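Here is a tokenized protein:
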Amino acid sequence: MVQGWYKWRVEEKIDDLPVAMASNTFSVPYPTRGYFSVADANLMAGTQVKEFQLKLNRYFGGGKCTLDELFEDHYLMQEFLCRTIFPECSRWAGRDISKQVVIFDLSGISLSMLSHWPALNMLREMLANDQLYYPERMHKTFVINAPAMFVTAWNVIKGWLDPRVISKIQILGKNYSPALLKQVPPQNLPAFLGGTCRCSHMPGGCVPS
């Protein structure tokens, strides 16, 4: 597994990705709030930011990018998390922080999106790679505003996942705030998700649309 991990990093040039850190001037790959290693910022056009990153940030795909670009952006985010965010969180907590809480909001998703096989195959490859090359990085994942039809897609998706990963995923409908607040302190959860954080000092607030 370690040999495969190393081979993948070399072939995909993972160590060459422009990961924003305190020691460089690379742009953050997504909006950041409350860290010292990188400033509070939104993803903005710049010399180190590729055009497809801006498209993905605005539309998260939408047929505007290639699969290679989508994967590159995903791995850049993962590397930023591992090299910058986790180390800072660990210093502040006084213990090792190496896992993340993820919230997926399915508001507005349609049946055609959930049954689009090219997208599902892309998701399957991404999940498989994450389990191989970024193992045990998930603490908890919440899927909120999940429509009833999502259950059908979920039955397909969970067949691609390790049982340990499945146990960390919670599917929620519209009454999701109590579950989120059990995991995330209200001051760290955006107000539109039931918390108290607004980040009014930044354009777009906590999570720019």
Remarks:
- The longest strand covers residues 138-144.
- Residues 1-32+50-97 form one domain.
- The chain has a mean pLDDT of 90.
